Amino acid sequence: MNKVKIAKTISTLTNPPIICIPLFMIISLVLSFENRLFSLQKFITLELISIIFASLMPMVIILFWAKKLNTDRDISNRQDRFTPLIVGIVSYFIGFLTLLILNVDNFLTALLLCYSINTGVVLLITFKWKISVHTTGLSGPVAALILLLGPVGALFGIIYPLLIWSRVILNKHTLAQAISGGVQGFFLTVLEMHLFIWLFKFNVVGMTPLIMCIYYIFAIIFTPALLGLLSYRDISNKRTAFIVFEIIGFAIFLAFMPLDAVFIYILISLTFILVSFYGGDDFSWFKVLKSS
Length: 292
Fold this sequence. Notes:
By secondary structure, this protein is mainly α. It is built from 13 helices and 2 strands.
């Protein structure tokens, strides 16, 4: 299988309405354990609401809109994205109201409100710039898993470099657009979740503290941000600059952050390096690491 086919497969599987199905299933499973007892009824309720409002409704409008405009399912033209984004905002907000009225789970209630607001932010950005909906759609549920599971949730960040590569290789986004979508989704989700849980006085037990979430997010985004900056900068010997800054980053993580965040940083960084080397000689990260 050539790299374009691999990139298309990754891009298809990580389409926001699709990737949220397995990730929201994990979120719903975690939330369905109360006092170490599993509630099947709660799991089914959370999963149905998640699938309907975070997956099926957005997916239907994307497919309908793509067919109506006779365009690809990614709706690559920036100006054509406004209607699906607006429908997504409404769908997530209805899901939030449904959970709020049913009072099933406070965490998922706040998360769907985050989804609605974050999609609104993407909509505003889209007026001027085609930020990646794919990486935003991945980072949201991964941020939720970090809030629920800490470093275990952060491990799902390993998908991030693969997704960036696929979107750039397929010429759907620039490197900056692909990286920025993830950065936005990670930070906005954890900040808004802590804010909404405090604002609505939701009772959520065992959620990862905000400072720890930020540590894990920096562990995920440090290397792509560095590779992205070096890709756009016209400097000599980018590979040496990358190695120096990676060592500095490792030293900072080791000095100031917990060991599990250091482990996430090492694992994600190695993934980015492998993607850079095997992503193709026309991929900008490959050029950074191969430069002399």
